[in-house]
């Protein structure tokens, strides 16, 4: 936890899964956390978990691919919690399909949430970071950035986020702002459960198969990713920027 004044963090896609675990972890680190998701009501559980533990949290509904909604959401956070100087771009969707079956909407939706969303949120928050001479941006990439069958859209978006991260690190470093990416491997979430259902596998069966291929012999949990994100957002990571950390239970080829 920082010894300075309470810092404000925004975590997108924080109603569940990795986003919710990250919001809770950052609150434990002493941050005031804006829990942002498409449906504000869906954020209630995360906010309640934080506030019951004595933390400060605010539920905010926002479509991160909509520029006006992003501007309004960031302005609300700045007014009600304080200027956001920590941003975790976690919001994501899946529209998996093989290339010849992938629709224009499948492609555009994934690009809109992952890439456009991270761009809009980062652009809206960076002025608060520059004003504070302190900022932390963490973008959620994925091991799928290395290529994954049936995920031409998702893999492209997650690879793009790595280039986006490195560019932000170069542009914003002189203002005290770092930008890093966390790239999870197999993490047990609602999203991976939905993938199992789509391909006709039981979720337990899918996890067992995945664990057998991971050096640490287990699948990841949202808290595993949240721990890596928390490191990047802290004072101790001020000399770490433009990096991509794979949280995947072992090396990836």
General description of the model:
This protein is an alpha/beta fold and 253 residues long. The chain folds into two domains: 8-184 and 225-241, NAD(P)-binding Rossmann-like Domain (Rossmann fold); 186-219, no CATH class. It has helices at residues 17-28, 44-52, 67-80, 104-132, 152-172, 190-198, 203-211, 222-233, and strands at residues 8-12, 32-37, 57-61, 84-89, 135-140, 177-184, 244-247.
The proportion of residues in beta strands is 15-25%
Helix content: 40-55%
The CATH architecture term of the largest domain is 3-Layer(aba) Sandwich
Separate helix tally: 8
Mean pLDDT: 96
Query: Could you state the order of secondary-structure elements as H and E?
Result: EHEHEHEHEHEHHHE
CATH topology of the largest domain: Rossmann fold
Query: Could you name the CATH homologous superfamily of the largest domain?
Result: NAD(P)-binding Rossmann-like Domain
Q: Strand count, sense and closure of the main sheet? A: 7 strands, parallel
Topology:
Layout: E1 8-12, H1 17-28, E2 32-37, H2 44-52, E3 57-61, H3 67-80, E4 84-89, H4 104-132, E5 135-140, H5 152-172, E6 177-184, H6 190-198, H7 203-211, H8 222-233, E7 244-247
Parallel strand pairs: 1-2, 1-4, 2-3, 4-5, 5-6, 6-7
Helix pairs in contact: 1-2, 1-8, 3-4, 4-5
List the defining traits of the structure above.
Rossmann fold, 45% helix, alpha/beta, 2 domains, globular
Give a nutshell description of this structure:
By secondary structure, the chain is an alpha/beta fold. It is 45% helix and 16% strand. 45% of the residues are buried.
